[in-house]
Amino acid sequence: MKNALFVFHNTSETRATEYATLAAIAANLGAAGYSSDLLVLDATASSSVTVKHGGVFRSASAVKPDKPIGDGADYLVHIVGKAASEGDFSLIVGFGTISNRNWGPQIAAAHSAEFLTSCEVIQAGNANIEITAPVMGGLVQKTLSLEGRKAVILYSGDALPAPAAQDIVVQVVTEPIKPGAVRFVASEALPDSGGIPLRGASKVVSGGLGVGSGEKWRVIEEFAAKVEAAVGASRAAVEMGWVPSARQVGFSGQKVSPEVYVAVGISGAVHHLAGIGGAKKVVAINKDPDANIFKIADIGIVGDYEQILAAAMKKL
């Protein structure tokens, strides 16, 4: 029996669909002869974690650090590396979050494993696993057959239906931080207005460089709140410091699959389009009639976004 380790960062914003997706992947891996364990890094300050559909895992454990750890990447390098060595895991699976993309390559290098990020499909069967992921900024899809090789897999595909498995409760154990050459002192992130998390949102309103400034970003947030949508952003808007990186949509951010995706002031660069391929309907608002975003939009509106959104909110 081959072993797979699933790694999950549990926070106050964790959704049941995230546990369901991990459980579905674990059940799928069982078809290729893998037995799966779950390691949870808990950031809720609770004494226990309820793992939805956790019965699909052979075992589950939950840990928390004894002091602040920033995004948790350095801590997880130690914790996951230790678990991978002790459990003889040939696969390590997590979501394609920014934090996981920090520790994932380090773990892969330490264990001579493949590192596969932004994976959209994990297909198991006949004792083999095939991974499908975008390359070249999303222009091309590649399918890789592992054929028994070790791999660290970060999944960024759609939410998956939960398998028939019971919920389990796991006690959280404090695992001390291993002293290292680099010590975390403090971190200061851009304030996130909160609201609906991007992952699993049915409606997303995203802004780009065309929004104009950080002061005008409130227009995006106000419209999103009005239509009960999650707030997203292009890489350019994140790099300008207008919005936290956790809200970035695209090849280097999060992949979203909402019913409706509203792109405001977004040009439509390839790396952004790679993150919205699963959207059922795309509405684009841009003052440039030649913006690339209009090529894939179901509805395109050329004009001043502030006037357009203001008129829309009056109608709602």
In short:
It contains 7 helices and 16 strands. It starts with a strand and ends with a helix.
Radius of gyration: 20 Å
Major sheet size, sense and barrel closure: 8 strands, mixed
- Please state the second-level CATH architecture of the largest domain: 3-Layer(aba) Sandwich
What is the CATH class name of the largest domain? Alpha Beta
- Provide the residue-averaged pLDDT: 88
Shape: globular
Contiguous runs where pLDDT drops below 50 for at least 5 residues:
none
Tally of distinct domains? 2
Number of helices: 7
Terminus-to-terminus distance: 57 Å
Q: Superfamily at the CATH H level of the largest domain?
A: HUPs
Helical content stands at 10-25%
Tell me the strand order in the biggest sheet.
3-11-4-2-1-5-10-6
Beta content: 25-35%
Secondary-structure-derived class: alpha/beta
The tally of beta strands, per DSSP, is: 16
Account of the protein in words:
- This protein has 316 residues and is an alpha/beta fold.
- It has two domains: 2-174, HUPs (Rossmann fold, 3-Layer(aba) Sandwich); 203-315, 3-Layer(aba) Sandwich (Rossmann fold), CATH 3.40.50.
- Helices cover 23% and strands 30% of the residues.
- It is built from seven helices and 16 strands.
- The protein has helices spanning 16-30, 73-87, 98-110, 217-226, 235-239, 270-273, 305-315, and strands at 2-10, 34-42, 48-51, 59-64, 91-95, 114-119, 121-125, 128-135, 140-145, 151-155, 168-174, 203-207, 230-233, 260-264, 281-286, 299-302.
- The strands form three sheets. An eight-stranded mixed sheet has the order 3-11-4-2-1-5-10-6, with helices on both faces. A five-stranded parallel sheet has the order 13-12-14-15-16.
- The radius of gyration is 20 Å and the shape is globular.
- The model has no long low-confidence stretch (mean pLDDT 88).
